[in-house]
Amino acid sequence: METVAENTADGVIAPLFYMMLGGAAGAMAYKAINTMDSMIGYRNEKYQYYGTVAARLDDIAGFIPARLSGLLLVAAAKLTGMDAAGAWRIFKRDRYAHKSPNSAQSESACAGALGVQLAGDAVYFGRVVKKPFIGDPTREIEAEDIPRANRLMYTASGLCLVLVIACLAVAALVMR
After folding, report:
1. How far is CA 130 from CA 100, 120, 135, in A?
2. For position 1, what pLDDT does the model report?
3. Which of the two residues, 88 and 37, has the higher pLDDT score?
4. Cβ of 147: how many Cβ atoms within 10 Å?
5. 125 CA to centre of own chain
6. Half-sphere exposure (CA, 13 Å, Cβ side) for 74?
7. Cys-Cys with 108: which of 28, 94, 129, 174 at CB 3.0–4.6 Å?
8. pLDDT recorded at residue 62
9. Angstrom distance (rounded) from CA 154 to CA 156
10. Would you say residue 24 has pLDDT above 80?
11. What's the farthest any 2 CA atoms get from each other in the chain?
């Protein structure tokens, strides 16, 4: 569910956002930055400088789309009959719970919409990294939460597509 939530922002909303701003080249440039962060954005001695540059570029490029994704996931919760009030409450409270300024934006809205707790400690390269939890443990996570998270992602993605088309239509009218 965390992966679905984060990839809603990184894999769908952000590329659509940059496609709106710069066409296919804008979307491809964003994906290049995001992929570079995924591949070398980890902190280790060997790639310290490369990784830092990749991570910071991704933080900058994902800043607006991550927040847009959180808001779209809250709206998607409403449209899919999930807990929109919980999504908004957890989004406001936990959206800055990660070191990255962007990753908890969508995860917090997803956790709130589903009424579950996400994140917590993780293991990277064999080491446990202490991380805060996102959301409230109002119920146990269950297998059906994966399709629920997917429904949120599809709905938020559709909302973003409608928003992008509307923005482009307005821009086309203004440019006449």
Report:
1. 14, 7, 16
2. 84
3. 88
4. 10
5. 23
6. 17
7. 94
8. 94
9. 6
10. yes
11. 58
Please tell me the predicted confidence (pLDDT) of residue 160: 97
Token readout for 47 is: 């790639």
Residue type, 134: I
Structural contact between residues 104 and 65, judged by C-beta atoms closer than 8 angstroms: no
Q: What DSSP string runs through the chain?
A: -HHHHHHIIIIIIHHHHHHHHHHHHHHHHHHHHHHHHHHH-S--STTHHHHHHHHHHHHHHHHHHHHHHHHHHHHHHHHTTS-HHHHHHHHHHHTT-SSSTTHHHHHHHHHHHHT--EE--EEETTEEE---EES--SS---TTHHHHHHHHHHHHHHHHHHHHHHHHHHHHHHH-
Q: Which two tokens stand for residue 43?
A: 């902190």
Residue given tokens 């496609």 in the structure block: 19
**Distance spanning both ends of the chain, measured CA to CA:** 44
Residue whose tokens read 């923005």: 167
77-86 pLDDT, tens digit per residue, is 999 999 999 9
Q: Are 106 and 70 in contact (CB under 8 A)?
A: yes
